[in-house]
Each structure stands twice: as C-alpha cells, then as structure tokens.
Structure prediction request, 470 residues.
Amino acid sequence: MREATKTTLAGMLALAMITLAGCEEVKDVCEIGCSAEGLAEGNASITGVRSLDGFFAAVLRFDAKAAQIGAGLDAELQGLAADFGIDAATLQADFGGDVGAALSARFEQNLDGELRVRAEPPRCDVDARAELSASAQCQVEAGCEIDVDPGSAMLECHGSCEAEVRADVQCEASAELVCSFRGPAVACSGECKGRCSAMLDVAASCDGTCTGTCTVMLDAGGSCDGVCNGSCDGNTDAGGVCDGTCTGSCELDASAGASCEGVCEGTCEVAARAGAACEGTCSGECTARGPDLDCSGAAEARCEAMGEASVSCQGECRGELEPPTAMAQCEAAASCDAQARADASVEVECSEPALDVEYALRADLDAEVAAQMELGMRQLGVRLPRILARLEQATLLVDASAELGAAATGTAEATVDAFSGGNLGVVAALRVVECAPAQLEAVPGLIAGSTAELQASLSAAVDVRGAVGL
Prediction:
C-alpha cells in the first residue's frame, strides 16, 4: 500500500509541477499547509477534494459504526451472562470469558430436556439503489461521465424487488412472487408470524391450544381427566370418566380451550412469533409464495430472485444491484463502489427478529436457582433478538471492510486521473500531494484495527447463538 500510494502521488506531483509556472506566480500554493489533525483525530477534511475527502469520511464513519456495534454486542453478552447469575469474575475464571460456554453449562445443569429456540432471520434493509446512486455521484466527482440515473433506471437485482400490490402481480420466470398480508384475522395459506388458528375436521396433532376434543394415547397407563376408552383400573362413572389408571385412549373435553399433547379435533391455535406454516387464520402477518397469488389487499408484494438468478427491478431492491455499463467502465468504479457499500453497511438498520423460546426447568432445582433461571430465560427473550440484529449488522460491516481498505490506492489513482483530465486544479493537486499520502497510508491500519475488534465481538455473539441452538 505504501509504495503504491507513493508511486501514484509522485505521478501527480510531476504533472502538477509541469503545469505550475513557478512559486513566485502562485504564492499561496507555496505554503499549502496541512491540518495538524488527520484521520486518527477524526478529521476527514484533508485535501479539499470532494472525492478524496469523501473517501476519508467514509472510513471514519465505518470506524465509528464498527465501534458502536461491537460495544453494543459486548454489553448485551455481558448483560445476558449476569441475567443467569454469572458475574464477570466467574465468567473469566471458569469459562475464559466465553459467554456461549457459560450459558451452555447453565442449560445443561438446570434444564429438563433441550432448550428450543426458533427465530426468523433478522431483516436488514440495505437500499441497494441508494448505494448505487452514491457510487454514481462519487464517480461523477472523480471526473467520469455517467449518462444513466441509477436512482430510476431499470436494473438487475440479485435479491428481491418491490412490486406493485394488485391482484395479478407478474414476476419473471427467474423470480418467485411473495405477498405479505397483515391483520388481526387474515386467511392464510403460507407462513404465519403471530397466532395461527386452523380447523381440524379430522383429528390431528396440535402443538398449541385445542378447542374441541383432545385425545391422548395412554398405552402404558396413566391418569385420565376425561373419558377412558380402554381399561380403567379403578371406578368408572356413567359418563366413562375413570378415577384410576386408564390404559388405552383418554378423551378430554377441551371446549373451553386447553393445551393438548395428543390429537385435536376442533380448532388448534398455535403461537408462532418466529413464523410457522399455517393453513387457517393468522393473527399477525401471513406470507404466501407462488406464481398465481392474488395480492389484493397485501401489505407488500415482491419478486424474489431464485438461486443465483437476478430480477429486473425499477423499485426498491433488497440485495445487490448490477451497475449500469457506463458506471462499470469508469476508472473510479471500484473505489467508489467500496465507499458506497461501506456507507450502506453503516446506515443499514436490522430489525430485531421475532423469537419463540420453549424450555422446562428441572423439578428438583433449588428455589433460588430456579428463580435465577426463570429471570435468565425471560431476559434471553429480550436480549437475543437485539444480539441477532447486531450480529447481522456486524457481518455486513466486516464484509465491507476489506473492499474499503483496498480502495485507498484506487482512490488516489482516480484523483490522478481527474487531474490529468483537467478536472482538478493545480492548487487542489498540490494539496493532495502534500496532505493525502500519510492519511492514505493510515487507512488500512485504521480499518484493520476496528474490524479486528468488531470480529472478536461478532465471534462471541456467534458462540451464544450456537449455545441456544440457532
């Protein structure tokens, strides 16, 4: 990086000196002066050249966001450990600071069976079209001529593209139609986030609340609070209710609604905050997929590219947009794309995912231990969505960091091209030559340092995600 930067800016200096008639004629150029504060002090106004200082500003925004997300993850992880009664000293002494390992130990010691956590993936809305527009503006400032407006042009989207909500939405063959309906009672044949109620005309298993009749098989015998269809080791009243041990099937009256561990005939209502298949009525959000959907009344409709394919898009793209050919041919394209992508990862907000947590504590736990575990489990439902959202943001930042670090030399080269093309004045060129090299050389180290710290927080969060089975 250092040698490449020196070579690039030496070329600029030679061009500037050829153009400059002499110091006597341009006295203000002779004492350019550079600010005593650079990137290390949070100053991005290094040269006065918008394209180059814009790159420095992107680096500082990235550094600040990486620190913010890392600190947020660390705070949530430490807080989660404390929620389960694991203080900082114990965490370090017994688990080497590994929150994931500490939680795994607590679960193994105190839970009866496995912890079941279901979570939808965090949704991070990266505005790909805004990202592409920012890259285009950067390239214009670098002296490239771009005739297309990426903010409104029909472009190829690798992801999903917003579609107009109507009855006959059509997607390309390479894309799948996805419609989302929201409300207190939405007819659903897809995935429900909320509560799903389904009519069971034929008895079927129900992992929720059964309103109707619940039948439980008691092959090994057991108590039955309903009608025993089999043999009863005890007295049976006229209605078939057994006050002893029933061997066979036990039919329970669940007309008022009850949890059912057998098969339900009637209505089954299941809580599915993290999303579950639903064929019935959804209270919340129902997402359906298919080529012949009627999206009338939907809150949202999208064409989602399948596999590695792309979809033509004029609306909002969630994913990656292919740049127009005119942009791809610009000398500054790579560095401007890296800068725009880094800015997009800084600005993106990831929604906290819905979560379903199922567990059972051991019956023989000490009351104090049981209370601590209940507190921890409640807080897990609060903190884990925040951890998962920040984890997704951290991943986006780490992915963008390599390109941004490598773009320093490309940014310098684009500045040279702007000067040689007559798009940069001599005074500005000399200021770049005088003030930019040291800051450009500092960029990779600055990005590497903030990325390494973020990566450590990210790895710790990944361990916690694994500890809860996600």
Q: What stands out?
A: Confidence is low (pLDDT under 50) at residues 15-27. The radius of gyration is 31 Å.
